Amino acid sequence: MFIEKSKTALMQTFLIAYLTGILWLKRNPLSLIFSAISPFSLLFILFIVSNGRYLPLSITGSLVMALVGYGLSLGQDISFYKNEYKIQDVFVASPVSPITYMVGLAISQILFGLPALLVLISLATFFLLSSFYIPLLLVTAFLVWGSMSSMGFFLSSHMLHMRNVSQIISFVNVILAILPPVFYSIDRLPIELQYASYFVPTTHASLIIQNIMGIATPKEWSIELGLLIQLVYLVGFVFLAKVKALWREN
User: Fold this and answer.
1) What is the pTM of this model?
2) Does residue 146 belong to any structural domain of this protein?
3) H helices within the chain, ranges in order?
4) How many domains does the chain have?
């Protein structure tokens, strides 16, 4: 029974991803380019301004920013499908669960950014201390994408208007990808803000990538702590998406 349910959920997930992602990309392949503009634009600016000195940090920040953006933008898509196209009503009336719906749309969203992510991950891999750290890099990327997708789904489920969703998602994007030490070293912050930044999951994602690139990280911080914080955020927001997200409208 469990295996059959798992197979059904898997098929539903990939069907949703196909309908909302692959079909759209077949009709609008330029979406792949448009979705890559934001992270690569900042990477380009920082590369020019620093004469390439901060390229590893720039790549780290751009990768984390891209993952945050692709994850949170799931909230905008879900709100659009729910409020404008009313597609979510079809899935609500079907045996599809909220988590299956969320994962399917999250996969479709990551397809739009897949070329950009592959380039950024390849660039990050070039600066790693050893190829031994590639799995850790991929795990970190997955944790960021998963937690941000769950957060986007949860937030959008409580908003009734597209304008509100766009504003909130943009605000959260800045809070998670720009203000914390993602594009810059954490030691640039006062000690009080350094400790405060440890509550932000993207800080740990950036520190992990910086660490495996050989960039100095705080002595009181560790990779294990970074993975733990990100895992807590992932599990927490998946739980909120499953239990507290508004799936059916009363």
Assistant:
1) 0.89
2) yes
3) 2-17, 23-27, 31-34, 37-49, 55-80, 87-92, 98-126, 134-157, 162-177, 191-197, 201-212, 223-243
4) 1
